[in-house]
Amino acid sequence: AIDNPLNDPDSTIARVLVMAGYVLTVLFTIEMLMKMTLLGIWGPADSGAYMRSGWNVLDFVCVVVSILSLALEGQSRFKALRSLRAFRALRPLRMINRRPDLKIVVEALFHAVPALANVVSVCIIFFVLIAIIGVGLFKGKLRGCNGDVFDSQIAGQADVYHFLERPSDFSGMSNEEKLWFGPCSSFSSVQSRYEDAFAADSSTALSCADGGEVYVNGTLVSDADDLESLGLYLRPTWGDDTPTSRDVCEEWGASWERIVPQSFDNVFSSLLTFFEISTTEGWVDVMYAAVDSRGIDMQPIRNHAEIFAVAFSFFEVFGNFLILNIFVGVICAAYEGEKSNFITPEQATWKKTVEIALMIKPKRQKTRDESEMTATAARVIESPGFEYFIMSMILLNTVLLASRHFGEPGDFTSAAKYANWVFSIIFISEAVAKIWVFTWRTYWSDQWNRFDFLVVLGTVLGFVLQWAFDIRITSVVQALRAFRAARIFRLLRGLEMTKRLTDTLVLTLPELA
Q1: Which of 319, 400, 501, 511 could crosslink 278 through cysteines, CB 3.0-4.6 Å?
Q2: Are 208 and 184 in contact (CB under 8 A)?
Q3: Hey, is 474 helix, strand or coil?
Q4: What domains are there in the chain, each with its CATH number?
Q5: Pairing of strands 143-146, 214-216
Q6: What string of DSSP letters covers 293-348?
Q7: What is the pLDDT of residue 364?
């Protein structure tokens, strides 16, 4: 790393590096010869011979390259072989052979190559399929009118821009729209067509007033049909056909360009685009362009096809979170396999048992008073019907919270307020009943009960701040109201598999930190 081709060959650092190269090469050569003598140079696959180990082969290559580099130093006849010195960069890899932990990682990577080849095949099939679909849906559509003319003369005029979005043939144009393509059009590209057509005709003098009126030999002619009857109106380049947005854009002198750098015009560009956005690079811009797209050579309209936003979101989930992360899973599996080679099956079983035992915490047995009322309340609270009722209330409360929006009617606001009171009373009553039946100590020992209690406490605190102290609109009260939405996580408790995943996630948080 210290060696530099710009160093002065006669400097002290250059001489020290040369001497260090000689010393290290001699030491590594002696090490290699000693290993060859002890292990043997070659032998059967399971003999443990020197050349039967890939790490020893790496050491051998590094030593031979070092010897050749030193031997050919200063030999002008072997300049072509000086490129071998580049292989000296492999020397740091020899450290891996001295560190078992690093060897496990590297060997896991090499052993994962066959499995990674299968993953690559799956990814190629997936992306090619999606690319073909992308070509069918979006080829030629992610383009629009652009350029200086568009910015200065089209985008700022609502009627002009509307015609660009929805052009019509000549018979369907209004007189005003026809004059946009007439001799006094505000677009210089249209005016130049008339200048080229009538410049040599001295008998016809076309002139334009400041207001855009057309004068023919001094006579005002402001109707496009009259101009056409006089032979002084040039039909646009598309003639009597219905033009596309691109035809209109280019007729007015603007340019038809890509909206985003990516495209789906062919399977290769589509494949590249999907691979790029699968890494979350620029996928939002591509999604917006697809949502606005209308057709080939047609000007995009905002949110024209919103369903494509859902499609791109699903692609991100599968293409980024699933497909590409399979690579990580394969490498992790190979790494675990390499580690398992160093322990016996009995040790692996013991290790797993200890890990499970460390994660399990003893739970207190629910205790309750012996009174008939308490026993009846306990049976009700522990019954499946009560749990289903609470879950349905949580779901309805979540739907209500999600339905609140800006500009909502006053009647809806009042109804939502009263409904929130009802839900709050139900959840507060549930918490109070559980504490009364199971006692505070037993109730608080359950993690989910703690979560419920904190949500209920936030609800009560919000009511206290709002009504007791007449605090109506503050960020604190709004935050406490929004905190009620966290109750939806209680639905996870009713789904056994989801509950296991949630508990596992919570248990792994310390390791992730």
Answers
A1: 319
A2: yes
A3: coil
A4: 12-98 (no CATH), 100-142+260-360 (1.10.287), 151-258 (no CATH), 372-512 (1.20.120.350)
A5: unpaired
A6: --STT----TTS-THHHHHHHHHHIIIIIIIIHHHHHHHHHHHHHHHHTTS-HHHH
A7: 45
What is the arrangement of strands in the sheet containing 206-208, beginning at the earlier edge strand? Answer: 206-208, 214-216, 219-220
**Residues 277 and 323: beta-carbon distance below 8 Å:** no
Q: What is the DSSP string of 6-74?
A: TS-TTSHHHHHHHHHHHHHHHHHHHHHHHHHHHH-SS--TTS--GGGSHHHHHHHHHHHHHHHHHHTTT
Which amino acid is present at 150?
A: F
Nearest Cα neighbor of 51 from 32, 66, 67, 65 is 32
Q: Which two tokens stand for residue 508?
A: 């792994």
- 223 near 200, Cβ under 8 Å? no
Dist CA 351 CA 344 (whole Å): 11
- Supply the pLDDT for residue 42: 80
Burial class of residue 182 in the structure, from the number of CB atoms within 10 Å of its CB (0-12 exposed, 13-18 middle, 19+ buried): buried
Which residue type, as a one-letter code, is found at position 484?
A: R
Q: Specify which residues 219 forms β-bridges with.
A: 216
For 109, counting Cβ atoms within 10 Å of its Cβ (0-12 exposed, 13-18 middle, 19+ buried), the class is middle
Residue 223, judged by CB atoms within 10 A of its CB (0-12, 13-18, 19+), counts as: middle
Please enumerate in sequence order all residues whose Cβ is within 8 A of that of 176, keeping only pairs 6 or more positions apart, or say none.
Answer: 159
Q: Considering only CA atoms, which of 306, 333, 418, 288 is closest in space to residue 114?
A: 333
Residue ranges, the chain, pLDDT below 70: 1-7, 9, 45, 73-91, 94, 97-98, 100-101, 198-207, 209-213, 217-218, 222, 337-345, 347-348, 354-355, 357-370, 466, 468-487, 490-513
- Please tell me the predicted confidence (pLDDT) of residue 88: 66
Residue found by looking up tokens 């080849």 in the block: 117
Contact (CB, 8 A) for 235 and 170? yes
